[in-house]
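User: what does the whole thing look like in 3D?
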Amino acid sequence: MHRIVEVVLLVMLAAPAALFAAVAIPAGCRRPLPERWTALLTRSAMLTSFVASLVLLFAYGRTGARTREISYGAWFSSGHGQFALEFVIDGHSLGFAVLATAVCGIVAAFSTRYLHRETGFDRYFMQFSLFALGIMLVALAGSIELLFAGWELLGLSSTLLVGFFHERRAAVENALRVFAVYRASDAAMLSAAVLLHHWAGSGTLSDVFAGNTAALGITGGQALVIALLLLVAVAGKSALLPFSGWLPRAMEGPTPSSAVYYGALSIHAGCFLLLRAQSLFAESIAAQVLAALVGAATAVYASLAGRAQSDVKSALAYASLAQVGVIVVEIACGFTTLAFLHIVGHASFRLLQLLSAPNILHDLRELEDRLGERVTPSGRAVVGAWQRGLYVFALERGFVDALLDRCVVAPFRRIARAFDRCDRLLCGEGWGTRARQDRRSP
Amino acid sequence: MTARLAVAAVLFAAPLVVVAAARLDLATEKLRRIAVLAGAAMSLAALVLLAWTDDGCHRFLAGTPLLRVDGFTAVLLPIPAVTWLATVAVTPRSRLDRAGLSRTAWTTLGTTAAFATRDPWLLWLLWSASTVAFLSSLARPETLHARGVAAAYLLSSVVLLGVGVGLVFGVGERVSWAREVGLWTMVVAILIRKGIFPLHAWVPHEFERGRLGPSVLFSAPQLGSYAFAVLVFPHATPAMLRTVAVLSLVTAVYGAAVAVCQRDARRACGYLFVSQSALVLAGLEGTSPEAIAGALVVWLASAVAFTGIARCILVLEVRRGRLALTTFHGGYEQFPHLATSFLGFGLACIGFPGTLGFAGEELLVQGTVGAFPLLGFAVVVASALTGFTVLRMYFSFFCGRRVTGSMKPLLSHELLVFGALAVFLVAAGLLPERLVSSRLTAAHALLEQRTQGAARCP
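Assistant: Here's the predicted 3D structure for the full assembly of 900 residues, as structure tokens:
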């Protein structure tokens, strides 16, 4: 049985990787596949992954074991340890993997029609296959290095898909903004990985996921530091405060990618990681309280901001974020099963909403035809001063981006440019000329 | 041994063939074709030697420290070869001349010879020769200012290294103070050549105001790191190593941070190079096998990736003029392969999973954090900032607006070189085990030499 599980898991992971190779290699050789071939390969790969995940779930159910580790040896070895190709199979990881493969399959089928004859059809599916591989690695990784690899794949594919319509300036600018937050998130994740490796002597996650932090041999303080770094990583990836500003910007991408990233899977990847690492948080009440506060603040913020959005994708993005905030609170309070069910239910529901978003005007017209009257939004007029303030706050999305720009980006830029001017001065270039250029440029 | 000697001979014969051909009355384009073939043969030979080199040390000229290859140097030999190949293959026809082709061949030969020796005086001689070759490439009127700045920094590094070698290996055994003073002098020379803070300003200046091709050919192999590893590392005091490591880590963050706000693509590239080369030096001082092995892998990955990035910029500049990062240039649809290759090179620089940089950076971070628990995270910060700059450059060069009108497409040999470099970075990144394990052995050997206190072949 163990051998079968190994093979099936390999098939599940290899399918999106093979899809990437099958689309990228012909494109690289200037012989891109015809659209129907790309579509067929994509559907086949996603179906294979989905079936494999179901088989895995069935096999796991039959054995009755709680947690199972599957290792394919070392990717490469270092002096004190090795970077293991190790996976952990348990109820949570398999459940999330099945959800991921199902969602990827649905979105792949939807995308082949939605992007029909779109320039960059094969580029979309290359990036989508990287995403599928990344989310499966995040779901099933048994070592923190693999988890980090999946995390990075999610970030890059997400950024490239936000900038998918690369001839639009706004799409590219927003993609860069999204990537900036992802880099901060990745840095936190890498730091957590390094510290875990450094303190525990190994990057294996099975003890962390099984709630057996004592076996890792790390102290409570060390667990707190790793937990806080993970919280930063999760906040970046799941758009929790103070990183929430990137979420509406990410809606520049094609609707199917928005659905899979910011409605269904990517935005929940952070929550899933938090859920898996709950035992680390349980080591410290401070970390739990902080996570709960961040989650609650995000939920309130997103509920407010979502109410003032004028486009359906942004409104849905904030609605997703509000639920993500609630999920984080649930995890911080230790309700992991509830949080997991919440993730699955919310991802499925939001996927449906986002995929049907392009049809909303069509649906509205049909509804009005059937009702025989116009459908007008209900609600009362805003009257009070505090309500007006709240409205401005919501409309400006909580001034989150402006605050980050003023408190982080602008000082950073000023300092970096001052250093640059010093360097120029050392090379005999005029200080004044460059300073004037700095003032002129945005 | 005979087969190894034959392969090693190709490394030295290939540039000499081009130097000899440059003396004949051949057309420049024909000479370039010869240089491309020679570069390809040399790269192949270097990669074969890398694959063949086991944990031992091979001296091809018995009884001398010349032409020796071990696990440490084997990973460095492909760097000058690949850099040279990319330079001659991707240089635009309008900028090609016989003297330039001959000079690049000499530079490559000198760097390769430097990597194959541990004799301090010979190394100093080759260090000086490469400096002179680089300065002579900046003789054009528009690069005279850059030449002046480079000369001020690099000639002082030549003098300091000469003094240091003389003090350590000449009178160091007899005079007690000479050894430590000599080592510090050599360290300053290396910091200048590598562009370590606060002696780094000339590097971005050369990239911006000088000639990008010769700058990369001169800087990418990182002769300074090699000199540090063979001349300083075995004899350095812990305080010396610590000082240089701290400066390197500061430089890694500094370079990456200043690159973020650059407006000129070349200058941004220069700062990124400063950051990456500082990471290599930081790893070499980590005094743990992981850090040293990571530094060696990052050394190879960043050299290849930077060569690719610089050539991409040159190819685009030929078609569009000087590239500013304050605007979007668009044109992805016209150069999809170039865009993809550029992204691949950039991702290899930041240690993205699936590229060679990933294995190197993982080891480097582990080793550096082990040695410097807090400051070691500078590697993580530098990597995050570098990632942002790389993507900013990618979007600026290829996205953001629709480009109408025709533009000269990439030539097939340009495509081939970019594809080969990208494939190498990805293939080595997907299967890094052999490369990493032999670098770990090399790192142990280097540490052993440090224990023995002499740069002897293990």
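In plain terms: Chain A touches chain B through 57 residues (CB under 8 Å). Residues 2-361 of chain A form one domain.
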